[in-house]
Amino acid sequence: MSVDVVIELFRDKKVSGNVSTIRKIFAAMIRRLKIRLNYKTWMIFDFATTIFMVFTYFLLSFIILPEDISKAGYGSSYFSFALIGIAISHYITASLRSLSLTIRLEQFYGTLESVLSTPTDFIILFLGDLMYFFFYSSIFLLIILPLGILLGAGLIINAGTLLTLLVLIVLLMISNLPIGVVSAAMVLKFKQGNPIGWALTWINQFFAGTFFPVTLLPDFLRVFSLALPLTYSLDAIRYSLIWGVGLLNERVLFDVAIMLIYSIVGYPIAVKIFRKIYDDARKTGKLGIY
Amino acid sequence: MSMDEFIESLKEDRKVRGTKSFLRRVIASWYYQIKIYVSYKMNLALEIIDIVLSALIYYYIGFLVSPEDLIKLGYSPDYIAFALSGIALSRYIWTSVARLAHKMRHEISGGTFESLATVDFDNFKSWLAGQVLYGFTWSSSVFIGTLLVGYLLGAKFSRNPLIWLQAVLIVILIVAVHSAIGVMAAGMYITHKQLETLLVLMTAVIEFFGGVIYPLALLWNYPILYYIALLIPFTHGLELFRRTIMDETWITDPEMLFHLGVLVAFLPLIYLSFKVYEHYLTVAKKKGLLSTY
Amino acid sequence: MRDYAIVSENLTKIFGDKEHRVVAVDHVSLKIKRGEFYGLLGPNGAGKTTFTKMLATLLIPDEGEAWIDGFSILKDPIEVRKRIGWMMGETGGRALYWRLSGYDNLMFFAMLQNVPKEVAEKRIRTLLRFLELEDAADKLVMEYSTGMKIKLMLIRALLHNPEILILDEPTLGLDVESAIKVRNFLRRLADELGKTILFTSHNMHEVEQLCDRIAIINKGKIIFEGTPREIREKVEEVKIVEITLIAEDSKMAEISEKLERVNLVKEVTSVEKMGTIYKIRVSVDDHYTAIPEIASALKDYKIESISRSLPTLEEAFLKIAGVKIEESLNNSSRKRMWRRINIEHG
């Protein structure tokens, strides 16, 4: 092909345009999904380990006494209790680690600077990745819940509880994102993102009662549980699915209110911390360094 | 140093040969890996957090567990000891089975594997041995950390030093058998790059069927799963380990001898593993696959 | 300001803390006209990449300001980014999603650059065809060679048809043919479409060929700015004699030694080999008196020619920067350059 053809292509300056924010977010999500799909064996591993986890807690539930589960208000089945924790664990990871994972991915590929040299705000990329994580986590949910029910988990699944579940999952992600934003800021600062993200996820899951009711914790530790938005997210989702109640239930409504407060208060603080560290990274030239 | 001085120093070059050379290379491989790990100080701190939190999770789950059910299934009613002994031992599984292939992928993608291959004098035996040694070192640190935390949380482990000597020997046997699997797999990985994820999957399978946090006897209700579990060496290793440190059962006990026999039957894998590795390395060199990933 | 596409005033960037302070860019002031093809030349670590990153709003300067098409890099970074196409060849093609295809990479970045899908598709297909990547478009980038990745990154910088291109080592890693093609293409973009191109390079021959003006940067400072001819004229004191002779490789050390013993010869500046023919360039105090002396010293060898020569830009740079070539370029890039020059000149 001669260079004349190419020159003519760029001669037409009238061709300009705009791409809507929604399209960009969608494009960012698709890019992440395509990258993921190229790691097919890792996806299989992801699904397999989650399924093994379901079976493990299913077997464990045979030797669990129902009393403490009942006292915490979650019925009498430990398996139902644990299943919900497993089912939404990917959403927890997504909200606590998605931004740091986005940054790490771009640093790993060396594309962060290329992305930042475009007029599109980095937040668009992040929203696209968040949507991807939501989509990916939802696939797990759609496998784990039916599997759990087949194994005998006593969950009430109907249109009402599913709608409630959707709203609560979105609120879970939104209310936990501020922690994820701060975690991402730490990635930029310390360049050792994964361990920080992992630690935050583990700490959250421990104190929020992913594997056991927080009522088992002594008072001095339960204070930490009450300070975490995840505690309320898990409580609301469990209460809804185990008892078949919706958003207007008193307990669920209380949890929703707490999550909203965390979202409203958490965001400005988290964004401020992130911006400061992001600008510092731009100043020191360490933005793209993996 | 001037150029002339450097040239002179090369003339005086002496090489270390023989067994001493092999051991030096093993230690070098082990040592540089430790240095790399320790340089990530944050990783170290977070590893400790991981150990403590894992232990605490099962400590609290232990409050939910029925002691009577544990006794009925043939174990002592101490769930924290039960779970943490399983978790501690399972730390060796990933490093034994999958870590080598994972490490090779890193070396290949980092472009250093071919450099290793050009200085390799013994078909990678010393490098492999060094990496296995490192894996053992790291896993042992986490293993000891987990048991220590369990002990502090009230797990009733034996305090008999001889029993612990038996336990250590059992652990070495488990690591040896699973490392053999890991070495074979690492060899096959050189020519079949997709294998790494399957190895990680295998780790998950081994841990599930081994009964890390639930009593194996619960699988009696699902015979197929139970028999699959019996085919896995880790299942027998874990039983041996638990009976030793929780119940102070000596190796001469008939049930213990059975589990030991199964483990020992897997020992010839160790010899086979290096042969398999060498075979695939040769194939990779012929087909030019050393640097692909 | 309106006549200029890129203006920098005292742009400065300092890295490190008080104990280990590195002034990567030291009060650099430049003005690049619209439609100008401007070369920024300098050795490794001179500050070229740091400077271009500041212009691309990826790095915040510690002092100074810059304007791209009238927009401040500090106050209007988004407007700046709309107007530039930035590419860093030094990454060796690493700045791509290697688990996506070449086409998917380009479409994604086209989106980020606000290029409508239909327009993007046409431009991508045309540019892929032009740079002979069409067949590889649907393959994963991890299967590409380094040269293919560099080409893809260049396409990415062009997708939104920016008026200003900031290209940091864009031909690094390309084979000779592709490099020539890319250079011709970039030159025409400037000539026919009036694009402003800021082009950084190690390769002095390339910069000499392409650029309207060149700035030489060393240790963060601009040490000279002018046209290629002005630079060469600046160093008229550098007198070069070029000797072409036929010799065996084993004799070269002896020949170099004999040349250096000639009183009027200052140093051997370069040695090129083409088959059995060697082209040796030496700097001398005076051409007229040096040539006979050289001929006498090498009388035992098969001399093809001895002639006065104008200094190359490389030799001019040595004079201006005060840096010897062994210090300014590492051996591998030096060999690459010589090989490229040899092949291009047959």
Task: Please tell me about this protein's structure.
The complex is a heterotrimer of chains A (290), B (293) and C (346). With 290 residues, chain A is an all-alpha fold. Chain A has one domain (19-284). Helix content of chain A is 77%, strand content 0%. Chain A has 13 helices and no strands. The longest helix of chain A has 35 residues, at 250-284. Chain B is mostly helical. Chain B has one domain (20-287). Chain B has 14 helices and no strands. In chain B, helix 5 runs antiparallel to helix 8. Chain B is elongated. The model of chain B has no long low-confidence stretch (mean pLDDT 84). With 346 residues, chain C is of the alpha/beta class. Chain C folds into two domains: 4-227, 3-Layer(aba) Sandwich (Rossmann fold); 234-344, Alpha-Beta Plaits. Chain C has helices at 48-55, 77-83, 102-112, 117-130, 146-158, 176-193, 204-210, 228-234, 252-261, 287-297, 313-321, 325-328, 331-344; strands at 4-15, 22-33, 37-41, 63-68, 71-72, 84-88, 164-168, 196-201, 213-218, 221-226, 239-246, 265-274, 277-284, 302-309. In chain C, the strands form three sheets. Chain C has a six-stranded mixed beta sheet, with helices on both faces. Residues 325-346 of chain C have low confidence and may be disordered.
Task: Describe the secondary structure blueprint for this structure.
The complex is a heterotrimer of chains A (290), B (293) and C (346).
Chain A (H helix, E strand, L loop, with lengths): L2 H9 L9 H17 L2 H21 L6 H5 L6 H10 L1 H21 L2 H5 L5 H29 L8 H32 L2 H16 L10 H9 L1 H15 L6 H35 L6
Helix pairs in contact in A: 2-8, 3-5, 3-8, 5-8, 5-12, 6-8, 6-9, 6-10, 9-10, 9-12, 9-13, 10-12, 12-13
Chain B lengths: L2 H9 L6 H22 L1 H22 L4 H6 L6 H19 L1 H11 L3 H6 L6 H28 L8 H31 L3 H16 L12 H9 L1 H15 L6 H12 L2 H20 L6
Chain C lengths: L3 E12 L6 E12 L3 E5 L6 H8 L7 E6 L2 E2 L4 H7 E5 L13 H11 L4 H14 L15 H13 L5 E5 L7 H18 L2 E6 L2 H7 L2 E6 L2 E6 L1 H7 L4 E8 L5 H10 L3 E10 L2 E8 L2 H11 L4 E8 L3 H9 L3 H4 L2 H14 L2
Parallel strand pairs in C: 3-8, 3-9, 6-7, 7-8
Antiparallel strand pairs in C: 1-2, 1-4, 4-5, 9-10, 11-13, 11-14, 12-13
Task: Give the tags.
heterotrimer, A: 290 residues, mainly alpha, globular, C: 346 residues, alpha/beta, Rossmann fold, 2 domains, 6-stranded mixed β-sheet, 4-stranded antiparallel β-sheet, 38% helix, disordered C terminus
